[in-house]
Specification:
495 residues; five-stranded mixed β-sheet; alpha/beta; Nucleotidyltransferase, domain 5; Hypothetical protein af1432; six-stranded mixed β-sheet
Length: 495
């Protein structure tokens, strides 16, 4: 990213959608514009975990307004991420496909831990530099993220499916505010967050920070009533509970600093924050300006700059964790990317990204061997598809998993993906690279030519190469048969 360039992050949260536009300046991001709309998508989930039509329409309408503001931005200048409601929604595709068309940019559904990691990055980049251990808490509409870290580096990240929206629906649907209901809601949040007890038992942080809407809203209310300056305390939470109980109903609640759009979910937010305070043994929490969208912006800087992309670190960590052969991974990556370059000679940004993703698949293509040698491709795909994979959206991990699954053997298991031209090219090149590197040494690919042929491919090798690689020739003939079975052409020729 160059100085003066604009970038945009879009956060599709359970309660609100947010658009943050920043301008790059000397490795930092300066705010240009911030838009927020209360969409309440999370409240639109029915008992079967499906989004209702009205909730989806509110989301599409909001994204249409955001789209007007980011019109003219290049693909690498915009990143949209979706969180807990989309992780839960069984019919999320019904929303996301039209949403992509409306917005004009892809929308990534990220895992809970990936959300936590990005939140920490956003908070850390907007705090003064300090050598302090930090506990960062983000209470969203349907999830709560907890992160322990120092500086810009998160050490532990977790996400739990409880937040201001789902807790308010469960305990305050009729709007009544009683001390008993507030205590029950707090206990309900604690029950979900109890898995965090081990996480929090170290008491290893110097300062606790609260990120995003819920903590910010509570801090604003307390400050407006003379009970803290950007700090939430146990005394302040107790005072809020007393005010809620006195009001008796959400419609009668009159508090300076309470915004109307926050009113329907404030009780659930307070109950969740009380649960965090209790479990963590907190007496105070500072309100932080950074949030998920800021973490997304700074990650965009890393991906485009000289800093190592976090996805590269994730791939390296997975390869090392599962003991995959680094030298074989390098051989397969180099051969696969060389073949892909023959299919896609362009060196534009899109071609470079396609080659990069193929390289990641090659780097981890053998991680399944840590489970068993037989069907290691299936084991590797399972590992990827059930990994949090820092830096990756869920659909990106799924696509990498498809490449690992399809790297060898029959193609029917990946047939539903073969109409995706990019993935089909990547899959063929990975399969050929694994095949050509079967002896676990560099195969020498000079004189090998891969090209397109109709809806399929042609692979030509020199006669002297074929004579020196008889085993590879047999495997290539078998490869042609695999493609015929899924009604695709892979023509293998010697010339």
């Amino acid at each position: 990213m160059t100085d003066g360039q604009s970038i945009a992050a879009i956060d599709l949260g359970s309660n609100s959608f947010r658009l943050e536009i920043g301008r790059v300046a000397h490795g930092q991001v300066e705010r240009v514009e911030y838009l927020k709309e209360m969409v309440r998508l999370g409240a639109g989930l029915d008992s079967e975990g499906r989004l209702g039509t009205a909730a989806m329409q509110r989301g599409w309408d909001c994204l249409a307004r955001f789209a007007e503001r980011v019109r003219g931005f290049a693909p690498h200048q915009v990143r949209a991420v979706a969180t807990q409601t989309f992780r839960e929604a069984k019919n999320r595709t019904e929303f996301l496909v039209p949403a992509h068309r409306v917005l004009g940019f892809p929308i990534e559904v990220i895992s809970g831990r990936e959300e936590a990691r990005l939140i920490y990055s956003g908070v850390a980049h907007l705090l003064p530099e300090a050598d302090e251990q930090r506990l960062v808490v983000d209470i969203g509409g349907r999830s709560t993220e907890l992160v322990l870290g120092r500086g810009y580096v998160p050490r532990k990240v977790e996400s739990y499916p409880v937040g201001s929206v789902n807790l308010s629906i469960r305990h305050f649907a009729d709007g009544r505010l009683t001390r008993g209901a507030l205590d029950a809601a707090t206990l309900g949040a604690q029950a979900v967050l109890e898995d965090a007890l081990d996480f929090l038992s170290e008491k290893s942080w110097d300062v606790a920070y609260g990120s995003s809407g819920t903590v910010g809203a509570i801090a604003d209310i307390l400050a407006a009533n003379g009970r803290g300056d950007h700090v939430v305390t146990t005394e302040g939470l107790d005072w809020l509970v007393e005010q809620f109980a006195r009001a008796g109903h959400i419609d009668r609640l009159r508090l300076a600093g309470l915004k109307d759009d926050r009113r329907p979910v404030i009780a659930g937010g307070v109950a969740t924050l009380r649960a965090v305070f209790t479990l963590a043994g907190l007496e105070s929490m500072h309100n932080a300006r950074g949030a998920l969208r800021h973490g997304v912006l700074y990650e965009m800087l890393d991906r485009q700059g000289s800093t190592l992309d976090v996805r590269e670190r994730t791939v390296q960590r997975l390869r090392q964790k599962f003991g995959a052969d680094a030298e074989q991974a390098t051989r397969v990556r180099e051969v696969a990317q060389a073949l892909l370059a023959q299919l896609n000679p362009k060196r534009d940004r899109a071609a470079q990204q396609t080659a990069r993703k193929l390289g990641w698949a090659a780097e981890v293509h053998e991680i399944g061997r840590a489970v068993a040698h037989d069907e290691y491709n299936r084991h590797g795909a399972y590992i990827l598809q059930h990994s949090d994979g820092a830096g990756f959206a869920l659909h990106q991990l799924e696509r990498l998993g498809v490449l690992l699954l399809g790297q060898r053997g029959g193609l029917r298991k990946t047939a539903q993906w073969l109409d995706d031209a990019e993935l089909c090219d990547q899959l063929l090149c990975l399969r050929l690279a694994v095949l050509l590197c079967h002896a676990r040494r560099a195969p020498g690919i000079e004189g090998l030519r891969l090209s397109r042929r109709g809806n399929g491919y042609r692979f030509e090798v020199a006669r002297d190469w074929a004579a020196h690689h008889p085993r590879s020739v047999v495997l290539l003939e078998e490869e042609a048969a695999h493609w015929r079975r899924v009604e695709r052409t892979f023509e293998f020729l010697t010339a």
